[in-house]
Amino acid sequence: MQTKQSQLIKPEIETKIDGLMAQMTLLEKAGQLTQLGPSIVGGFDFNAFMENPDPEMFKNAQLDFHEDWIGKGEVGAYLGVQGLDEINRLQKIAVEQSRLGIPLLFGLDVIHGYRTIFPIPLAEACSWEPELARKTAEVAAREASAAGLHWTFAPMVDIARDARWGRIAEGAGEDPYLGSAFAAARVRGFQGDDLSDPQHVAACAKHYIGYGGAVAGRDYNTVEMALQTLQDIYLPPFAAAAEAGVLTFMSGFNDLNGVPTSANRYTLTEILRGQLGFNGFVVSDSNSIGELVAHGYAADRKDAGKKALLAGVDMDMVTKSLRFDIPELVEAGVLPLDVVDEAVRRILRVKFLLGLFERPYRSSAENEAANTLSAAHLELAREAARRAIVLLKNEGGILPLSQEKIRKIAVIGPLADSPFDMLGSWAFTGSPRDVVSILSGIKSATQAEVLYAPGCDINGKQPADFAQAIEAAMQAEVVIAVVGESARMSGEAASRLELGLPGHQESLLKALKETGKPLVVVLSNGRPLALPWVAQNADALLETWQLGVQAGPAVADVLFGAYNPSGKLVATVPYVVGQCPIYYNHPNTGRPSGDFWFTSRYIDGPFEPLYPFGFGLSYTTFAYADLEILPGAKKITVSATVTNTGTVMGEEVVQLYIRDVAASRVRPVRELKGFQKILLAPEQGQTVVFELEVASLGFHAEDMQYVVEPGQFKVWVGTNSAEGLEGEFQVR
Ligand code: NOJ
Q: What is the DSSP secondary structure assignment for residue 617, as one 8-state letter?
C-alpha cells in the first residue's frame, strides 16, 4: 500500500542522491549531518534575558555563522538565522562556493505563527477544529517561507498530562485521539500538498518521544512508562504526523526508561523506521547529543555522536559532534560508513523533495512584504483566537455583557494591557507592536466608558497598588479582571511548582470581589491553572490562554457576544497542584475514588479536577437525547440527537467516549474516540452519527501486540468527559 511516507521515496531523486554521494568526501558527508545555530560571540546573558525579555539585547550580540565551513560544504543546515537577506547571503555561499553546491536547509521554531502570531497550540486545540489548525499552520508556513525559511520545528505533538510542565502550552493537550487529529492537520498545513511549493515548509514532529511524561512536570526530567503506554498514549500523534507525510522528526532531551531518546535505537529505529515506516530524517534536539554525556549515557562527545547516529539520529543540532567526530569514528572502524551514508541520504532526500536544488532561494523582498501580516492573516488570527476561548463559568448569564445597559466598565489586572504576554512562548518572530491588547479590544468594541488600572504586576515583584483598581471598580457596573501568567511562565524550561495566580493577583481579585460588583475573570495563561477560589467567586470565568496578535478583538467578541464561545478544554484543569499529573483517561484503581474512607483519594482535598477534559460552556444550552447503537462486525454506529435549547445560535463539540469494561490489561475509564463540532440555531436539533471502527478499540497487550479484545464496551456521547448519555455494546 502506498503511504505518504513511501511516496517520499522517488526513484529519480534517489538516483540523484546516488550521484551526489559518489562525489562526497567523508567531511562533506559529516557536514550534511550538521546543523549550526549562529554562535553568539558578543556577550549575551541568557539568564538576564529570561528574567527580562528585552529583544533589544540580541541586537548587541555578535553572531558567528562559521561561514568558512559553508564554503567548504561542511554544514547541512542552520537554525535560528533570521532575515531574508541573511539567509540568502549564507545560501549563496553554499550554492556558489562549495564544491558540490548543496543548498543549506534553514529551520526555525515557527510554532504558532511567524509574524501573524496565532493562539498558542494548546489554546488552538481547544477549538476542537483540526481544520482551523491546518489553516493557521499554512499561513505560518507562507509567512516563514516568505522570510526565506524552509523548515519549522513544529508541530510539537507531545502528550501532556501535567500542568506543571511549561511545555504543555506547545501541544494539543492530553488526549492521543485529539492530539493525532491536530498533529496531522498541522503537518498538512505546514507542508501543503506539493512539498516543493515555495510557500510551504517542511514540518517536524517533536519531541520524539515521551518528553511530556517528565517526572513531576520538571522540564528535561527523566521519563518512565510502560511500553504499552508509549504505544497507546504517546505514540499516536507521532504516528499521525508520519502518516500525514511529515518530513522530519526531532528526538527529545529526555531519557525513556533509562535510554536517552536522542540515542534510543528502539524508538528511533525499530518504532520510527520499522513500525511507522518513516522515510524523512531525524534531527536531535538542541545539543541533546552533547547532553548524552551529562545523562551519563556517553563518555564524551565522540561517544555521544556515535551512539546517537547508530540509534537513528541523522542530523545533529548544534553539538557539532557529527562534524568533528564522524571522520575519525569511521576511519577507526567504530562507526560503519553505511550508517553515515544512510543519514546523509535521508537529509539530501528532504532537500530534493523541497525543491531546494532547483530553487535554493525561497523568497524575495517583494514576496515577503506581500505575504506578511496581511489582512487575511489577521482575520484568521482573530477567528482562531475567538475559537480558542473556553467559557468556564457564567453565573446568571452575566455574559455576554449588554451593550445597551452597561455604561461603565472597569478593566483591571496586569494582563489587560500587556501585548507582549499575549504572544505566549515561542513567538520571538512576532512583535508586541502587532498585538491588540485585551484593553484595546474592549475599548474598540464598546461605547461604554472604560476605566483601566493594572492593580499589580504579574509576578509580584512590584508592591501591589490596589487603590486605583478598587476606585475604578466602585465606579463601574461590571469589573473585567484580566489575570494569569506572563508569556515566559510557560514554554521550555518554565515548569512551575504552584498552579495558582502568580504574585498578588488573587489578592487583587479578592479585593475586587469585596466591592460587590459583578466580577468577570479573564484568564490569560499557558497552562491549566488550579484556581478554586476564582472558580467559586467569579461571576464569569473565561479561559483565553495566550491568543496572539488578535487577542483583544477576540476576547471582546466573546465578552460582548459577537461570538458565542465554543471552546472545550483539551487538558484537565486540576483543583490543586497536588493532583498532578491528572488526566481523564486514567486507568481505574481497585478502589475508585468515592466517599468511603478506604478509596483512592486525598484526605485534604478533592480528587476530582476543577474542570474536566472536554468541558466548556456556551451562551446557549444543548440537550442530548436518543442514544442509539448499531453494532456491526467491523463498525459500530453510534448516534444521538443534540438540540439547542437556549435562545442564541451556538456551536457544540459533541464527544464520544468508550470504555473497554474487562480486558487483559486495565483500560482507561474513558477514551475519546470521536468528536464533531456542530452549529445549531435555537430549538434546532441534529442527529450526530459516529462510525466507530472496531479495529480502533484496541490496545497493546502484555506481549506488545495490538489487540481488540471481545467483550462488553461502554459508550458515552456527551458534552464533556465527565457527562453524557451512556450505552453499551459487545465486540464479538
Ligand atoms: C529546544 C527545544 O526543545 C525545541 O523544541 C526547539 O525546536 C529547539 N530548541 C530549537 O530551537
A: B
